[in-house]
């Protein structure tokens, strides 16, 4: 059976699910805490208002939204071939990465563990972290050794080597992030041609966004040296390949980095004056790329990837909006609480 036929079910499901995505006007109405249309917009976006019309529990609200996203990802992977399913599942593992870093911080920075279970994200059928074994460990080295018996073996081995050399929890977390994107890039390379082109275009833009944000923050907020920063970046960017990133990491100021950017990023970021403004503009670019893939392509994995990316962005918007509304916060606070588009997990 042709690969296109295998993906016909997925393409139909994407089209149906995409009807939940909010347009620009609806997103703006959500930001208006006085909007009489807000509840209808949330219902259209797949939010069960009855389930959240109780005393605010931000963790439960977040878990409900993520569970919905996991369910939709599982629906979309049902008819995918093994390479496509591996790529989408790994994309969803970003939430397990959040769990891993939370466990690390709780275990080794004396943070309270009383509400741990409510803070961990439940990935349902996609969950792969041995939480109980990790909690029973005595130090970071043992923690990472235990993680080596999970599907995250390669990630854990690299993180353990870095920790044994640098003795830094910060470096461990950074390596976990970097390795995650390295694997995602590698999985995109083994997709068949009709799925690889659209998927790699969107992934490349996302990697440009992630790498540029990391580079600027690690270099100018954490003041790491250029080789250290470069080591923590991931390959596969659309406009920012590794040689370009190496040159950018060697610059001494934000302005110098922006001046060294290749086109079309140089023009796009010409008016940027801060790291946050760079991140916002790169987030818009990622969102526009995903919307284009969703609207103009069919019968390919990239379209499903674009939907899941856009759906997650809007769930972040809904989470912040609902939480702010229940707390009685105003429009400015709601706007300020929203994640930057495309922010890395």
Give structural notes.
Helices cover 69% and strands 0% of the residues. The chain contains 21 helices and no strands. By secondary structure, the chain is mainly α. Residues 332-345 have low confidence and may be disordered.
Class from secondary-structure proportions: mainly alpha
Q: Please state the average pLDDT score.
A: 87
The general outline is globular
Q: For the record, give the distance between the C-alpha atoms at the N and C termini, rounded to a whole number.
A: 37 Å
Listing every helix as H and every strand as E from the N terminus to the C terminus, the arrangement reads HHHHHHHHHHHHHHHHHHHHH
What's the β-strand tally?
0
Put simply, the count of helices is 21
Instruction: Report helical residue fraction.
Output: 55-70%
The stretches of 5 or more residues where confidence is low (pLDDT under 50) are 332-345
Outline of this structure?
The chain is mostly helical and about 350 residues long. It contains 21 helices and no strands.
Outline the fold blueprint:
Layout: H1 3-6, H2 8-17, H3 24-31, H4 38-44, H5 49-52, H6 58-77, H7 82-92, H8 94-108, H9 116-119, H10 131-135, H11 140-147, H12 153-166, H13 169-189, H14 193-220, H15 226-231, H16 242-249, H17 254-259, H18 265-268, H19 275-296, H20 301-326, H21 331-337
Helix pairs in contact: 2-6, 2-20, 6-7, 6-20, 7-13, 8-13, 11-12, 12-13, 13-14, 14-19, 14-20, 19-20, 20-21
């Amino acid at each position: 059976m042709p690969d296109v036929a295998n993906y016909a079910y997925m393409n139909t499901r994407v089209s149906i699910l995409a009807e939940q995505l909010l347009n620009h006007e609806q997103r703006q109405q959500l930001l208006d805490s006085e909007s009489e249309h807000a509840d209808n917009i949330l219902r259209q976006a797949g939010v069960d208002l009855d389930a959240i019309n109780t005393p605010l529990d931000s963790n439960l609200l977040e878990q409900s939204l993520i569970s919905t996203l996991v369910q939709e990802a599982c629906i979309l992977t049902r008819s995918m071939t093994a390479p496509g399913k591996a790529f989408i599942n790994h994309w969803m593992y970003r939430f397990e990465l959040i769990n891993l870093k939370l466990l690390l911080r709780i275990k080794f920075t004396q943070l309270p563990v009383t509400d741990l279970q409510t803070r961990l994200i439940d990935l349902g059928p996609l969950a792969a972290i041995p939480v109980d074994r990790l909690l029973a460990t005595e130090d970071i080295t043992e923690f990472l050794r235990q993680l080596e018996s999970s599907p995250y073996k390669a990630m854990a081995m690299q993180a353990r080597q870095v920790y044994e050399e640098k003795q830094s929890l910060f470096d461990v977390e950074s390596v976990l992030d970097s390795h995650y994107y390295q694997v995602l890039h590698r999985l995109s390379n083994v997709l068949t041609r009709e799925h690889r082109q659209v998927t790699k275009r969107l992934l490349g833009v996302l990697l440009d966004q992630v790498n540029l944000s990391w580079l600027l923050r690690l270099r100018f907020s954490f003041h790491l040296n250029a080789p250290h920063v470069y080591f923590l970046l991931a390959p596969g960017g659309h406009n920012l390949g590794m040689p370009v990133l190496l040159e950018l990491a060697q610059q001494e100021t934000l302005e110098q980095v922006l001046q060294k950017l290749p086109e079309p990023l140089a023009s796009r970021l010409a008016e940027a004056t801060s790291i946050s403004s760079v991140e916002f503009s790169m987030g818009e670019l990622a969102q526009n790329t995903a919307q284009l893939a969703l609207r103009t392509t069919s019968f390919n994995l990239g379209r499903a990837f674009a939907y899941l990316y856009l759906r997650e962005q809007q769930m972040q918007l809904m989470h912040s909006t609902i939480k702010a509304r229940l707390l009685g916060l105003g429009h400015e606070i709601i706007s300020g609480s929203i994640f930057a588009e495309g922010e890395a997990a």
